[in-house]
Automatic annotation (TrEMBL):
PROSITE patterns: SAM_TRM61
Chain coiled-coil ranges: none
Keyword Transmembrane carried by entry: no
Function description: Catalyzes the S-adenosyl-L-methionine-dependent formation of N(1)-methyladenine at position 58 (m1A58) in tRNA.
Positions that bind S-adenosyl-L-methionine: S106, G107, S108, L109, D127, D171
Protein name stated in the entry: tRNA (adenine(58)-N(1))-methyltransferase TrmI
GO MF, one annotated term: tRNA (adenine(58)-N1)-methyltransferase activity
Pfam families referenced in this protein's UniProt entry, alphabetically: GCD14
Similarity annotation: Belongs to the class I-like SAM-binding methyltransferase superfamily. TRM61 family.
């Protein structure tokens, strides 16, 4: 049965109306078809339908992470689910890993990272503004992942505290100014992700990535288009989720070792003079001949 404190996604099949609510006894959710009391939700289980006072049915569904992050309370632009899933795969986020993030904002991506690192992993997130960090913490608590997150109110000018991180993500206005900070925090061979909204920011970032020797650099933009689900008239929805940002991915590599200069012919001759046993065969034979015949003139070796 649904319990107090649970998150419930309430969906109506007639109009597609939906609400994401946290169950609190004594509260109610208004809809186009009447009020739904939270106490009534606690008399049902996920997957069941509940009728409103006007007789309309709302199904009680388990919320997805995508629905939650899309609807969470925000004071900033968020990373949308269409980018978040791509980021998770391309940064290779796994249970137990350590993710370092700058640009906590409202905590959308922060919650996503924390969801996937599990209780054995950790997300270290940074934002210079206290109010953003506080809101992100509340959003993470609502989804139940705040205990996996270390919130830092700190300017990235001071750098990250972490070293050897499994992944680093930057969502800041001038990421090219902080590639060095990301490089310091990231373990060699692991991935850096960056989100920027404009193409001129891509150019500046690419130059900085080249300067620090990052490899396998990729830039991608993701478009998302839903389709109507009426079997007799399947077609795209009238509106789609277009540009929300450009994603940049790169891998930290270590500097190449310096190439030793090749030995010059002059140095080889010098070594040969000091080590008779290392003389070319022709010179050695000429030396033997000279010893046998002192009056002989030493000629060129042909």
């Amino acid at each position: 049965m649904i319990q107090a404190g649970d998150l419930v996604f309430i969906w109506n099949p007639k109009k597609g109306d939906s609400f994401l609510v946290k169950v609190q006894p004594g509260q109610s959710q208004g809809t186009h078809f009447g009020q739904i009391k939270h106490a009534d939700l606690m008399e049902h289980d996920y997957g069941e339908g509940l009728r409103t006072p006007k007789g309309e049915v709302y199904f009680l569904l388990r919320p997805t992470l995508g629905e939650y992050t899309r609807r969470l309370k925000r004071q900033t632009q968020i990373v949308f689910p269409k980018e978040a899933g791509f980021i998770i795969e391309h940064l290779n986020i796994f249970p137990g890993c350590t993710v370092v993030e700058c640009g906590t904002g409202s905590g959308s991506l922060c919650c996503t990272f924390a969801h996937f690192v599990g209780d054995t992993g950790k997300v270290c997130t940074y934002d210079r503004r206290e109010e953003f960090s506080a809101l992100a913490r509340k959003n993470a608590e609502k989804w139940g992942v705040a205990h996996r997150i270390e919130f830092n109110v700190r300017s990235l000018d001071e750098g990250f505290k972490e070293r050897g991180a499994d992944a680093v993500f930057l969502d800041v206005p001038t990421p090219w100014d902080y590639i060095d900070k990301a490089y310091e925090a990231l373990a060699p061979g692991n991935h850096l992700g960056i989100l920027v909204p404009t193409t001129n920011q891509i150019s500046e970032t690419l130059r900085a990535l080249q300067e620090f020797g990052f490899a396998d650099v990729q830039v991608v933009e993701i478009m998302l288009r839903y389709f109507k689900t009426e079997p007799n008239r399947i077609r795209p929805e009238d509106m789609m989720i277009g540009h929300t940002g450009y994603l940049i991915f790169a891998v930290k590599t270590l500097p190449l070792p310096e190439i030793k200069a090749e030995e010059s012919p002059e140095s080889s001759c010098a070594e040969a003079e000091t080590e008779p046993s290392a003389l070319p065969k022709c010179e050695a034979q000429a030396g033997d001949a000279a010893a046998d015949a002192p009056s002989a003139v030493k000629g060129p070796c042909i």
